[in-house]
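Help wanted!
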Amino acid sequence: MNKHSGFGAVVHDFKKNWPLWLMALPAIVLVFVLAYMPMSGLILAFKNYRYDLGIFGSPWCGMDNFEFLFMGGTGWQITKNTILYNVLNLFTSQFLSIFVAIVITEMTGVVYKKIVQSVIFLPYFISWVIVGTFVYNIFNTDYGIIKGICEMMGVPTVNVYRIEGAWPWIICFFNSWKWCGYNSVIYIAAITGIDSACYEAADIDGANIWQKIGHITFPSIRPTLITMILLQVGRILRGDFQMFYQIIGNNSNLYNATDVIDTYVFRSLTTSGNLGFSSAATFYQSVLCFVIIMLVNGIVRKIDADYALF
Amino acid sequence: MAKEKTKEFVVPKSNRIKIAKATIGFNIVGYFFITLIALICLLPFIMIISGSFSKESLIVTQGYSLLPRGLSVSAYETIFKNPMIILNSYGVTILITVVGTVLGLFITAMTGYVLCRQDFRYRNVLSFYFYFTTLFSGGMVSSYIFMIQVLNLKDSLLALILPFMVNVFYLLIMRSFMASVPVSIIESAKIDGAGEFRIFIQLVLPLAKAGLATIGLFIALEYWNDWYNAMLYINSSEKYPLQYRLYNMISSQAAMAQLSQVSTVNVENMPTQTLKLAMACVATGPIILVYPFVQKFFVKGITIGSVKG
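Answered by r_m:
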């Protein structure tokens, strides 16, 4: 039936279906220019970048950039931070979202339910800049809320910007805060998708609400949870740059505790201008992300193909 | 598990009370924590609003609090005394939001439609072509260099518009929305001799209104809240979008001084602290105002994305 193959087949299909191809063309071109073309820039990791020579003209330097990045310990530090933050954020935000979703679906007061859901969804709509304002508003050592509370209790003001250990929790808090509403919408969708006959049968069997949640709701939303975890694991080496940048800012006291690959790359891009190191970090981030996502997806597919992403 | 069930089968009489007790317990715990979470979500907004209406002198001596300290609109007066800076940023943000959303939505709709056409042979290949970019990317450095050196978009508003124009996630949601348009309508129009573009514009788009509204709002929100691209690519102050203007004011004293010079307020008298918060309110106001009306579209979009994406 099909006498064409390979590129010839595409040309043939284009001749036949050219209006459809034309409709998809803007997106194809945009994605090519904005996503595929920059991929070639990853070779910068193996080059000694010179602004006047451009990406392709700069001389090669082998693995030097990687060596420098990891010799000083920075490479390990930012990798460790990125992974730790992602794991912490993943668990807290999923746990919270599932909790919120279950309570909201069980709530009987319609008006209160709507209000609560709207309020919890609200943080998703504001920019990280506003979140940065909140952080300033709360922790600012001159006028912040924390200072007011400390004075009220008669203890000396706590300067949170000096306590490294607090920041993983603060970042984790704001991450959950911002995404709780969004993620719980996903879980609410999963819970409302459960066949109500299951609950009715459980009612007849005399199960109480905790048993219904434990034996029906949890097992039913497991595929959703696995998908969410899979998606997050794929991003485990990509920090949410906007969040880190707005909450921490350029606070060099906290680099040890809060620097992730993205903030490191951004800083070297804008301030120190050492593109070699940052390209090496990006290269290693992109490639490792890809490997991890393929690996995890492959494993999940082996265990149960229905849960795999693709 | 099985043991529990048989046990309860044996004592069905006490069930009614037991169910009620468990439900009450659940409600107490559930309502308590959900109210707490909702309050935590709301409090920062209240702090910012009440801070922006506070008296600067009281903030300086006593710090921020949950309720306004004194009542004053001087921060807003300072902003609106010479509103050019703010209006300018509003203009930039509205421009990129409108242009970006209209173009982006149209492109996303067209592509989503093509990807859902069962008779289009390369739809899976194309879907993967788009999906792959979410798995692997060139990263921040190369995107930056490409934008500046190859596309030559430093300090151009196009650098703010292009990055959000095609979002693969929205493309896939749009495909799901388009899949709900009945194939028979498309086929009968074809038999009647309508061209593909005409079918798309006159038949498919009106039927996909819900999808268009949803994805349009998602795209618009991204443009409205963007400050990151502005930070990377925009140099000249008159091209700052709203969020980046806000960021700039909060993070640098110089930007505050600039505003004070323009609005002819003495730097010493300028309500620095409350001004920051008033700016935050001015930049977020429109979103909070439309939020109640658009929320349901977002819920719908996320739901569809989670089921089929």
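OP: Thanks! One thing I noticed: Chain A touches chain B through 105 residues (CB under 8 Å).
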